[in-house]
Amino acid sequence: MSEGFSADWLDLREPYDAAACSSFLRDHLVAWCHGRETLRIVDLGAGTGAQLRRLSPRLGTGQHWILVEHDPALIAAGGARLAAVGVSWRYRCLDLARDLEALATERADLIAASALIDLVAAPWLGRLLALRAAAGAALYLTLCYDGRMVWEPADPGDAEIAALVDRHQRTDKGFGPALGPEAAASVREALAGLPGELLTERSDWRLGEGDAAIQTALLAGYLEAAAAIAAPAARRRIAAWGERRARLVASRRSRLTVGHLDLLFLPPG
What we know:
Blueprint: H1 7-20, H2 23-33, E1 39-44, H3 50-55, E2 63-69, H4 72-81, E3 88-93, H5 96-99, E4 110-114, H6 122-135, E5 138-152, H7 158-169, H8 183-191, E6 197-202, E7 205-207, H9 212-229, H10 235-250, E8 255-266
Parallel strand pairs: 1-2, 1-4, 2-3, 4-5
Antiparallel strand pairs: 5-8, 6-8, 7-8
Helix pairs in contact: 6-8, 7-9, 9-10
């Protein structure tokens, strides 16, 4: 998911996303796509096209990607990054919160989204699943944040910050009150019992001592989210926690696991 995020942040996280995504689910999707003469992929919140770059070399011939993005700056950046990609693609500038149903005209075989579903509300998720059902499409959702945040070495303030970030995750991100860490479970519940195959795998970011740049960026985001939710009396504790964590990151003594889940639904046939 890209709306509200910069191209620099998307570039920073791209290699970590690629390393984290479940190879088992990816290979299962590749096998499902094998032998198709054409494959129309609608990528929601496509940003600069990272998911296309990640998947297209594995999906064979006949691909056509519709990259759905609302931010003109990211569309321009993505166009430059995708100029040499050897598959058919085009951007579609669209407000996903308001105009999701307009994508029915794209006749998708596969609907994909990365780092999106935890930002949306339950009614919007219902709209997405209705769109998928009408198209008879497969659904591939990667890097859904599930609420796990484990810093090493541990700090007494970690639990408080994690709880505040969790609360912030559930605030409105433009789609209504967000599902946050419950998103993947909500998708599984909605799809359970439908004909087809439903699979879920972990896709955690595992950031080591050498991954200081992304840890620094995440730390800044967590501090901002926690401060936005916390009572005024807690803000001094939050700032002190951030200073302790920043020293560990700067001295290359910090490790961080951020929990994500990937989900794949393959319709019959």
